[in-house]
Specification:
Length: 201
């Protein structure tokens, strides 16, 4: 059975009663936020998600951006910031600092990837509002996204052993030290047979 399109996903979500939508991770329910009427942040959020559906974004992408925007709407509502015109660069920088110092229920901070995703969605959201002439200037245009983490692999080095002896051949340097990087072969019953390698781990 084919999945629902992005537009149908948004329309189906809008038909769900407010009391049944709920939230995750301890966030407030959406009915606790300012009502989605006029030009407040909640109404702009709904228009932005509908815009993504019209542009044929995947439902999973739309749901992810909805959730990331809900984090910001809940944070802004607590501070009585319900209109797009109230959001400034300093306010968004404060939100970035809040994400950096936030601790989950287990005491661990948010991952850098989660912080990057939430800030990136805000930049795209306010860029959309500027294109729709709902804002004169983009407050998130100069917000810097945290640098991505660069982690070493869990097994940076692996030991390799030969399952059968192979003749030593000259290396690329031509000094004849160690086996060649090219595939070595040996004669078995008059036919060339490649060396077999296997991992020691």
């Amino acid at each position: 059975m084919p999945g629902k399109s992005g537009y149908e996903s948004v329309q189906r979500w809008r038909k769900v009663p407010l009391e049944k939508r709920g939230t995750r991770l301890g966030l407030r329910r959406e009915e606790d936020l300012a009502p989605a009427a006029g030009t407040n942040l909640s109404a702009c959020r709904d228009d932005y998600l509908e815009h993504l559906a019209v542009k044929n974004y995947r439902p999973m992408t739309i749901n992810g951006r909805r959730q990331n925007l809900l984090y910001f709407l809940e944070w802004a509502h607590v501070r009585d910031l319900d209109q797009p015109g109230q959001i400034t660069r300093k306010i968004l920088e404060g939100y970035c600092r809040w994400l950096h110092h936030y601790r989950k229920k287990n005491g661990k901070p948010l991952s850098v990837k989660s912080q990057r995703d939430r800030i990136q969605v805000l930049k795209q959201f306010f860029s959309y509002l500027c294109k729709q002439d709902r804002l004169d200037a983009n407050p998130a245009s100069e917000i810097e996204i945290p640098r991505a983490e660069r982690r070493l692999p869990r097994q940076p080095f692996r030991k390799w052993t030969r399952s059968s002896p192979c003749p030593t051949s000259p290396t690329r340097s031509g000094f004849g030290i160690g086996p060649s990087w090219r595939r070595s072969t040996r004669q078995v019953s008059g036919a060339a047979k490649p060396c077999a390698w296997k991992s020691a781990t």
